[in-house]
Amino acid sequence: MALLTDPTAVPPGPASPDARPGARPAPPDPGSLDVVPVRHYARWAAAAAVTVLVSQFVHGLATNPVWEWDVFRAYFLSETIVRAVWVTLQLTAYATVLGFLLGTVLAFMRLSSSPVLQTVAWSYIWVFRSIPMIVQLVFWFNLSALYEELGVGIPFGPVLWSVDSNSLIGTIGAAVIGLTLHQAAYAAEIVRGGVIAVDHGQREAAAALGIPRLRQIRRIVLPQAMRAILPTAGNEIIGLLKGTSVVYVMSIGELFYQVQVIYGRNGRVIPLLLVATAWYVVLTTLLSVAQYYVERRFARGADRTPPPTPLQRARRSVRGLRAAAARRDQPVAPLKPLGESR
């Protein structure tokens, strides 16, 4: 006898996983969840406090009459101040170039296998890092009290040619000598640290190829060492720029000395100190920008795709805004009904 069955009935089988006791419930739909962002209350409070402090500082700069912004504007681009800035730049440039040239020689003397060269270089660095810069400048300024004449001749023998110390080394010359010798001691350690950072295998490979020692240093070691040298060297040059203010003890007309002379006459101390501060900020900013691009150039060998510069980012942003504006201005094409041929 045939059995009558319902065609819509579900055939018997194992129970559904959700129907079994102890089974995990189905996960909820992600669209039905309320997403709540994390709230950083401490960060918001710190940002608000910093904003209030900066706003108060800017408000004080704008409203405090002691700053005397009219005096600042009158002297910032005056002929005397601009000439003093030029003297500051000259002292910085001379001391930087000569100091790093001498420092490079001292660095390789310390890395030499000769104990005599090592001892002389180490002693020089030890002495000139131990004596304050202002003491060195005063010493060189009064060199004629120690040596009335400077000459050239046979060692421990007669002098063949001599000249008066004051006529040979003037005030600017004494300042350049003092800044250069002081800077060379620090530059030597900066260069030595960069050379040590270069993998020793690079020099071994160059020696195995028969490359002369001087060419190894000039074409292989120093270009790779520049990546380690430049950040510290840039910081040292900026410090030297501000350190030139010490030469005021020699009555050289650099920036800080001229500011002192002017406010000594008119009594406008605060606005004239602000003039010097603003010029130091401008010069430091220019040096920082130059350092950024020099570092970027020497990083080409290690970083094949360097990050874009701030100017490139700005240009990219402008192009993106223009492209977005052009897309908004384009008319929207009407949608074709379904089934219509393309």
**Major sheet details:** 2 strands, antiparallel
Gyration radius, rounded: 36 Å
Helix content: 55-70%
Could you give the order of the helices and strands? HHHHHHEEHHHHHHH
User: What structural class do helix, strand and pairing data support?
Assistant: mainly alpha
What is the chains' assembly state?
A: single chain
List how many beta strands DSSP finds: 2
**Ends apart, CA distance between termini:** 63 Å
The main sheet orders its strands as 1-2
Query: Can you tell me the residue ranges where pLDDT is under 50 for at least 5 consecutive residues?
Result: 1-6
- Globally, the shape reads extended
Mean pLDDT: 82
Q: Which range does the strand content fall in?
A: under 5%
Number of helices: 13
How would you describe this structure to a colleague?
66% of the residues lie in helices and 3% in strands. The chain is built from 13 helices and 2 strands, in the order ααααααββααααααα. A two-stranded antiparallel sheet has the order 1-2. The radius of gyration is 36 Å and the shape is extended. The relative contact order is 0.09. The N terminus is likely disordered.
